[in-house]
Structures are given as C-alpha cells and as structure tokens.
Amino acid sequence: xxxxxxxxxxxPESALASRAxxxxxxxxxxxxxxxxLPSIVTETIGTRAPVGxxxxxxxxxxxxxxxxxxxxxxxxxxxAPAMEADLGWSKTAIYxxxxxxxxxxxxLAVPVGAAIDRGYGRAVMAGGSVLAGLLFILWAFVDGxxxxxxxxxxxxxxxxxxxxxxxxxxxxxxxxxxxxxxGITALTLWGGFSSTLFLPLIQFLMxxxxxRSTLMVLAGVNIAICGSLYFFTIDTRQDAPVTHREHADNTxxxxxWSAIRKPVFWGLAxxxxxxxxxxxxxxxxxFPMMTERGFRPEEAxxxxxxxxxxxxxxxLAVGLFARNITIRRxxxxxxxxxxxxxxxxxxxxxxxxxxxTGAIVFGAANGIMTIVRGIxxxxxxxxxxxxxxxxxxxxxxxxxxxxxxxxxxxxxxxTGNYNAVMLTVMGAAIVMxxxxxxxxxxxxxxxxx
Length: 449
Known about the structure:
Elements lengths: L12 H18 L6 H9 L10 H18 L2 H12 L3 H27 L3 H20 L4 H18 L1 H12 L5 H11 L2 H16 L1 H23 L11 H16 L2 H30 L4 H9 L1 H15 L5 H19 L6 H30 L4 H30 L3 H29 L2
Helix pairs in contact: 1-2, 3-7, 3-9, 3-10, 3-11, 4-5, 4-13, 5-7, 5-8, 5-18, 6-7, 6-11, 8-9, 8-18, 9-15, 9-17, 10-11, 10-14, 13-14, 13-17, 13-18, 13-19, 14-17, 15-17, 16-17, 16-19
C-alpha cells in the first residue's frame, strides 16, 4: 500500500465552510463560477503525496504497461505481414481494421478519462485488458474479414482504456495532477521496455508456432497478467474521494469546457496529432519499409528493438538532469530532435549503422515526448480535470494515429514504394515542432499576464 506522508492536519470544518462562503461571494461579485468545496479543501490541506518510482503502485502499473503496449500496440506490425501472406488479404484491408479500432478508441477517450476522474480506474483498465484478451482469442480463429475487423478494431478501441492516457489519469488521480510528474516519468521508464521485450518475443513465437498461436499467447498475457495487475494495483480506496455523482458530472463538464476555450489546448492538440502521424506511420510500416529498402528481416527487427532502450535512456536523462525544467522548455528541445532522427532513419542508402543510430535518436526523443504528453495538461492547460481534458486532447491524436497507418498503406499501394510515406512522415515531424514552439510561447505569454 502507498502511505500518505507529511500531509498537514486538516483545518476545522467551520474554517473550511467560512472560506468557501468567502470565495463564493467573491466569485459571484466578479461574475465567475465559484469553486467547489473539494477544490478548496485540496488547496488548503494539500494533495496526496507524490507516488515514487519504487512504490508497488508504479511497479505494478509499469509491468502491466510493458505487457499492454507489447501486446496491443507492437504486435500488429509483425502479425499483419504474416496474415497478408497467409490469407492473401490486401495491405489496405488489414490496416483498415487497425484504423477503425483507433477511431473507436478516439470516441472512447473522453468517457474513459471522465470515468477515471470519477474513481473507476480499476474497472476501466482491468476490464479493458480482459476484453482485449478475449478479442485476441477471436482474432486467432478468424478466416474472413468481418470477424477480423471485429477483433482488431475492438483491440484498437480498448487501447484508450489500457495504455498511457488511461494510466496517466490513474496516476494523476492518486497523486494529484501537479505532483504526478515523478510518477508519470517513472511509469514511462517501465513502458519503454515493451518494444525491446515483445518485438523479439513475438517474432520468435511467430517463426516457431505461427501467427495464430502467437495471438493466443498474447490473449493470455492480457487476461492473466495485465488484468490481474491493474485490478490489484489500482486501489480505489487510496484515490481522492468521489463527490456526489451529479456534482461530479457538472464539475467534469465545466473543467472540459474551460480547457477547450484556451488556445493552448488547440496548440497541444495540433502538436500531438502531428506527433501521432509521425510515430504511428513509421512504427506500423517500419518493418516492411526496411525490408523494401534491402535490409534483412532480422536487421529490421533489431533496429525496431533499439527504440525501447533509447526511450528508456531518454526518460532516464530527464529524471536525472531535467527534473526541474519546465515542460515548455523540455518539449521545445525534444520536438527539434524528431526531424533529425527521421532524416537518419530515411537515409537513402541502406546502411544499417545509420538507420540504427536514427532509431536510437528517434526512440530517445519519443521517450521524452511521452513525458511531455503526460505532463502538458497540468502545467500548460489546467490543474483540474486531468482525465477528461487529456481524453479530449486524445481525440484528434487517436484519429491521426488510426488514419496514419492506413494512409501510409494507401500511399504505398498508389506509388508502389515507401518514398512518399517517408516524405509525409518528415513533413509531420516538422509540423509538430512548429506547433509546439507556438504553443509554448503562447502558454508562457498567458501565464505572465
């Protein structure tokens, strides 16, 4: 259990009530919406203690995230080519299922974030993992496109309930959105190992047993490991108390509408959307892209596996050397690294060490960007309503994440090679950099007024 330490004693109820009355009167005089009593209590007695990287809470979530990312996200780029060769389906049809799933995940993002804000994180994440496992079993037995779309699209949709956006909201609810930075940074260190562990494992299982048996193994991982860890790690009794349902619904809606009226919200939405196009287009097509350029399959898998350690190294560097740097500054630096890494990955000559170095640079930048993505809301948009605001930001991001692989497949089908895909990915990386720089400047200007 995570102990809560060093919290000051709560002031008497009469003092809190008096302060609430004073604030309500002042807010009404200014024509503003008065703050709720729970918000005043939180400010008065402090938020919960930060969750440390060595706490059972973060360790349990970290192991579960390794398995969730490894099975739900990184499996598709390896399984898709095997299905294409075995069943004779088109690349566009196969990636279309992933696109539908990601779009459904975008529709779930806000309800999932709101549910976690209300204290249902355990049910959302554990239940999502079990459902994903059952869909993997269905996927293993498909022999036609309709069932495959149900299985693959369902798995894609459940990523909204099981990957970073959901788990970041769980951490923010436990520690408070401002103090969650250390917990989110530590959690991303665990998640960085997912590609390193699961890409070689999935490739090994597919070569040994085939893609159908591999999917059955992934089903077991989701049900037995992820579902259990989320259920036993997320203890709702240690979260902030849930307010009355009607009051909670009104508060969540007010926090969301307040956020989307800010230009910083839309700047971050554009940044993270371009980031999703950059990362997903490349990751979903990296393996066939590299083999098309003349690399051996084992070289392509090795280069992909370098992403994981590079992500961990980037996040460790943040934890060791940049703990006090603002997210505006950290993000402004890391977005400039993406075009450099992409240029090395898209090097015209098939030289492995250049591509491997690009994978390391790209992976490190992606690892740091995940931290920026997790902390940007409380530091740049709002300190309240983390789950629902982050969910709203995820809608265009998930939409881009879903359409990007399909669009890349369409470009490949139209042009006959991956050259146009490479240029598109580079353009998205440049847009991401420009968008975040504008957002950081706007956020700083607004906060200094």
